[in-house]
Amino acid sequence: MRKAIVFVVALSLVASFAMASGSGEEAPIKIGVGGAHSGDLASYGLPTVNAAELVVEMVNAEGGVLGRQIELVVEDDQCKPEVATNTAAKLVGEGVVAVIGHICSGATRAALGIYTGEEVIVISPSATNPPLTQSGEFPTFFRTIAPDDAQGQLQAQFVAEELGLTSVAVLHDGGDYGKGLADFAQIALEANYPGVEVVLYEGVTVGAVDYSAIINRVAESGAEGVIWGGYHPEASKLVGQMRSQGMDTLFVSGDGVKDQSFIDVAGADSEGVYATGPRDTSANPMDKAATEAHLAKYGETPGPFFMNGYAGTLAILNAIEAAGGDDDPAAIMAALRSENVDTPLGSISFDERGDAIGVGFAVFQVQNGQYVQLDN
Predict the structure, then answer these.
(1) CATH code, 149-272
(2) CA 180, CA 259: separation in Å to the nearest integer?
(3) CATH number, domain 6-145+281-357, options 3.40.50.2300, 2.10.10.70, 3.40.190.170, 3.30.360.10
(4) CA dist 14 → 8, 86, 181, 351 (Å)
(5) Contact 332/323 with Cβ under 8 angstroms?
(6) Under a CB-based contact definition with an 8 Å cutoff, are residues 276 and 267 in contact?
(7) H or E element: which one contains 357?
(8) Does 280 score more than 90 pLDDT?
(9) pTM (2 decimals)?
(10) In this predicted structure, what is the pLDDT of residue 15?
(11) Please, which pLDDT band fits residue 129 given cuts at 50, 70 and 90?
(12) Residue 33: strand pairing partners
C-alpha cells in the first residue's frame, strides 16, 4: 500500500519520503528545469534552479520517491520563445516526467506547444499570463503563482469592500503590464461592483515630468481614489503632485509599485499608499528554513520566484509519490489537483485549470516608511 508523503518541518527542512520495497536500483525519475539561466533575465530563472536543487538533494538524501532517486535536467531558454521550443524539445528527448518552469510567459507559451503534445507536466513559478490556464489550450500546465487578473480583482474588491469608494479613476502607463492590470481592475469593478463608478480611464506618458493635466482631470472627475497600473517612477510623480495640490485622493497600485524605490523617491508622500503584491510568506517556517538552506549552500538570500519554484518542485514530487510512482501524466495531474502539499507558500493544491489554490496577492500599505501587509 502506498504511504503518504510527510514533510516534517525542522530548521534543516528535513522531509521524509516513504520508500517502496525493492533494491533501489530503478531508473531515476527525471525532472526538467527550464528557464532563463543566462542573459539579461537569468536573475529570474536561476533562483528556480537553486530551489529545485535544494528540494531534490533533500529528497534524495531521504531515499528518493518510493525508492527512486530524482535527477534534474536543466536547460536554458533565455526567456526567448524561439529558444524555448528547442529547450522543450531537449527536455522531452531526455525523458523528463515534468518540468519546473518556464519563467517568462512568452517563453512558457512557446514551450507548451511542445510539452502539450507529449503530455509532459509543466509547473511554472512565474508565468502569470491568464490564458495559459484559462484558455484550456494547455491541459498539462500548472503554476504556483496567481495570474494577473487575480491582482486586478483584488484591487477592485479592496476599493469597493474595504475602502467603500463609490468613484475611482483608473490610470495606466500604456504598457503590457500596466494597462493590462488597469484593464483587469476596471473589468472586475464593472462586473462585480456596480456601485463603484469608473469616472475616468486614461493613460499617461511614461517619463513625463509634469502630470498636472491628468491630475486636474482626476480632481474634476470627483474620483475618491485612483487605481494605478504601472511602475513606481510614474507613481511617485503622480502621488507627489497630487499631494502638492492638496489632494488627499486615495492611491491604489500593484506589484509594480510595491517596491522600496517608490518609498525612497516619493518620501513622505508615499505614506498611506496601497499596493497589491504577492503575499508575504516569510513567517512560514518552511520559508524560513528554505531561506537558511539557500544561504548555507549558495551564500546569499534567494532571488525572485525562489519560493514558487521550491513549492512547484515539492508539489510535483508529492504528486508522483501519490500516484504510486507511476509516470502516467493523468495520474500525476489528478494527484496535483487532489493532494494538498505543505510548501513555503502554505498548503497548496491546484484547481482544474492548473492554478494553485492557496496562493495569491495581498494588499499592502505604506506605514511609517515601509510596506505592511494588511489583514483583508
Answers:
(1) 3.40.50.2300
(2) 19
(3) 3.40.50.2300
(4) 6, 36, 39, 28
(5) yes
(6) no
(7) strand 356-357
(8) no
(9) 0.72
(10) 38
(11) confident
(12) 74, 100
